[in-house]
């Protein structure tokens, strides 16, 4: 292909790609500004923020009942937070263990990774049967939480494994050789250096858990998480208040991503500098 | 007498049976500068890491000031290690790097600050004390690493190819600094290198290693003049080796005639600078006939290529001012004289 056409061609392709990627979201966002009498489809009757107000119960009376997501949103956030903490701690610890080859490290690796490979519906069903069998009642903070960790921990583990893979062990040795204990060496040398990786592992764990559906479906018990309760509203009739809510959670996710990006920028500035320096030295 | 460092029959065999180091014996006195020299993979770095405690030993004992440290973890040993890649903490400033080893020690703050200030001063690092370490040049970073390793006042400083990452110019400068520093502090230095010039130029004694075994432990000059094995004779300097058959004390019979030298064995080792282009005619002098095949004068040093009677080509060093050196032309016959005192006989 002519190089003069290549660049505009690639640009157009990329533009189209992004459009398809975000198309659904854009449609959702437009329809969320539907007027009070509009439905969940085009055309937009009149532009308003009515459904946003509706979401927070700020409209007087309505033919539509308020979206019952308040509690499940909180539940999902707490669950995602718990999952993030546990998965990241486990991920860091086990990746640290995998820095040296130990007896059974091969099988252990595949067993950990399996947690994210097996079909969620099956694991969920299995967990439900198991909890029935041993007489444990299903709950978001119990059975569902365990499965969220099983699912997200491999991601955190893999992220940390990649980080440790390019970690320069001699800085730890330097610290030990200065008489600093292994525990203090981890706290003051290793952890600050791997921190950007820890942030990534946390982001993965949080998003995957916050969004989890299939595993949660069978193990949640009576109190639902956000994805499940939203799914539940589909069985009635869909109104634009759902779209408004969708836009708000997306904004929340973006905020999370921006915070992550800023933190990364702050902490990787240190790291990339050191790598550059080491290349110069070599 | 109590040695600063003592290695007794130290060995390391990996679980798969590979032998990294075996039967390493060494006694180092306080304030000595010892270099481990050898080709890569000879076990010199492994030995250093065993002294530091980063590698466990499977044989023998390591003693520091008479105390057996063989089973002691690295953070409890009175050693400090300097790494080729500096291993500075990228998330800390120069001062924080240097102060790191003292931070967790029980010691009044003013005393810590005092020590850090003094060592920063000593290494000329005051101007960068608050900069991040990774923004500085290689030479400065190695100085920071040295300051960081020395501020904790180790009994022994272990240096693993500390000049390897520097360019030639800087290497010479830091090399000089190291030598001065070591004299000044009187701390024992163990220095690992694969560069002959560093080992011979810096150390009081050199440990030559090959294949996990110590070949020779000698002062540099001795190593140069009296190699004890074929490996050392090959590795150090440029020697001519002539094989023969031992015929009594200090004499071997070779295809080039009867050669005498110091020691016993069936291989004569002649250093390149021991050859004289005009035999002195002293009694007992070794004479070797040959043909000059090439000549180059670099400054005041002349390098001659001479083909001996057995058809081998050897290189001979001579001073350009030596009478007759200028007149030599390739192709002409030449008789080389060697003082038997400069010849070493070893077992091939």
Automatic annotation (TrEMBL), chain A:
InterPro entries: Bact_Polyamine_Transport (IPR051789), MetI-like (IPR000515), MetI-like_sf (IPR035906). It comes from Sagittula marina. GO terms for cellular component: plasma membrane. Residues 73-260 form the ABC transmembrane type-1 domain. Belongs to the binding-protein-dependent transport system permease family. CysTW subfamily. CDD domains: TM_PBP2 (cd06261). This is Putative spermidine/putrescine transport system permease protein. Keywords: Cell membrane, Membrane, Transmembrane, Transmembrane helix, Transport. The chain crosses the membrane at residues 12-33, 77-98, 110-134, 140-164, 185-208, 242-263. Pfam families: BPD_transp_1 (PF00528). PROSITE patterns: ABC_TM1. It comes from the Bacteria.
Automatic annotation (TrEMBL), chain B:
Keywords: ATP-binding, Nucleotide-binding, Transport. It comes from the Bacteria. One of its GO terms (cellular component) is ATP-binding cassette (ABC) transporter complex. Residues 5-236 form the ABC transporter domain. Coiled coil: none annotated. InterPro entries: AAA+_ATPase (IPR003593), ABC_SmlMolc_Importer (IPR050093), ABC_transporter-like_ATP-bd (IPR003439), ABC_transporter-like_CS (IPR017871), Mo/tungstate-bd_C_term_dom (IPR008995), P-loop_NTPase (IPR027417), Transp-assoc_OB_typ2 (IPR013611). Transmembrane segments: none annotated. GO terms for molecular function: ABC-type transporter activity; ATP binding; ATP hydrolysis activity. Belongs to the ABC transporter superfamily. This is Putative spermidine/putrescine transport system ATP-binding protein/spermidine/putrescine transport system ATP-binding protein. It comes from Sagittula marina. The lineage of its organism: Bacteria, Pseudomonadati, Pseudomonadota, Alphaproteobacteria, Rhodobacterales.
């Amino acid at each position: 292909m002519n190089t003069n056409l290549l660049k505009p061609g690639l640009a157009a392709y990329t533009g189209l790609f992004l459009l398809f990627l975000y198309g659904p979201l854009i449609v959702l966002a437009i329809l969320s500004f539907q007027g009070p009498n509009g439905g969940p489809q085009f055309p937009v009757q009149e532009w308003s923020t009515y459904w946003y107000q509706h979401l927070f119960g700020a409209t007087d009376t309505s033919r539509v009942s308020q979206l019952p997501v308040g509690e499940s949103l909180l539940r999902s956030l707490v669950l995602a937070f718990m999952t993030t903490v546990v998965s990241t701690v486990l991920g860091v610890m086990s990746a640290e263990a995998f820095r040296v080859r130990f007896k059974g490290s091969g099988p252990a690796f595949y067993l950990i990774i399996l947690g994210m490979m097996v079909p969620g519906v099956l694991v969920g069903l299995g967990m439900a049967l198991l909890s029935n069998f041993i007489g444990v009642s299903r709950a978001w903070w119990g059975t569902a939480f365990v499965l969220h960790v099983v699912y997200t921990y491999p991601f955190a583990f893999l992220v940390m494994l990649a980080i440790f893979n390019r970690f320069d062990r001699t800085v730890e040795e330097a610290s030990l050789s200065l008489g600093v204990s292994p525990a203090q060496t981890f706290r003051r040398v290793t952890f600050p250096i791997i921190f950007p990786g820890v942030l990534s592992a946390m982001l993965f764990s949080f998003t995957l858990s916050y969004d989890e559906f299939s595993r949660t479906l069978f193990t949640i018990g009576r109190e639902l998480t956000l994805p499940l309760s939203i799914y539940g509203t589909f069985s009635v009739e869909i109104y634009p208040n759902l779209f408004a809510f969708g836009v708000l959670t997306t904004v929340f996710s973006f905020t999370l991503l921006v915070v992550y990006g800023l933190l990364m920028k702050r902490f990787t500035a240190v790291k990339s500098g050191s790598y550059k320096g080491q290349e110069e030295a070599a | 007498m109590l040695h600063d460092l003592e290695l007794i029959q130290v060995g390391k065999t990996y679980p798969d049976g590979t032998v990294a180091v075996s039967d390493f014996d060494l006694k180092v006195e306080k304030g000595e500068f010892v270099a481990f020299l050898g080709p890569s993979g000879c076990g010199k770095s492994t030995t250093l890491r065993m002294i530091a405690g980063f590698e466990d030993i499977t044989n023998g004992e390591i003693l520091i000031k008479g105390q057996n440290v063989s089973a002691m973890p690295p953070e409890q040993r009175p050693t400090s290690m300097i790494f080729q890649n500096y291993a500075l903490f990228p998330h800390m400033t120069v001062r924080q790097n240097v102060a790191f080893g003292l931070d967790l020690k029980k010691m009044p703050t003013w005393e810590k600050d005092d020590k850090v200030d003094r060592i920063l001063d000593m290494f000329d690092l005051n101007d960068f004390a608050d900069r991040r370490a990774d923004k500085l040049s290689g030479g400065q970073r190695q100085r920071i690493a040295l300051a960081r390793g020395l501020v904790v006042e180790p009994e022994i400083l272990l240096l693993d190819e500390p000049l390897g990452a520097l360019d030639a110019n800087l290497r010479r400068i830091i090399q000089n600094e190291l030598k001065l520093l070591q004299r000044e502090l009187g701390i024992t230095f163990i220095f690992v290198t694969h560069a002959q010039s560093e080992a011979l130029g810096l150390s009081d004694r050199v440990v030559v290693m090959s294949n996990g075994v110590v070949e020779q432990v000698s002062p540099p000059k001795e190593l140069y003049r009296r190699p004890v094995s074929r490996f050392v004779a090959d590795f150090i300097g440029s020697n001519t080796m002539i094989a023969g058959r031992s015929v009594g004390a200090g004499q071997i019979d070779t295809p080039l005639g009867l050669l005498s030298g110091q020691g016993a064995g069936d291989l004569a080792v002649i250093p390149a600078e021991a050859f004289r282009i005009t035999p002195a005619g002293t009694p007992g002098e070794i004479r070797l006939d040959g043909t000059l095949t090439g000549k180059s004068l670099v400054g005041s040093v002349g390098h001659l290529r001479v083909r001996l009677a057995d058809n081998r080509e050897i290189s001979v060093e001579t001073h350009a001012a030596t009478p007759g050196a200028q007149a030599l032309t390739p192709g002409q016959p030449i008789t080389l004289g060697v003082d038997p005192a400069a010849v070493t006989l070893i077992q091939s």
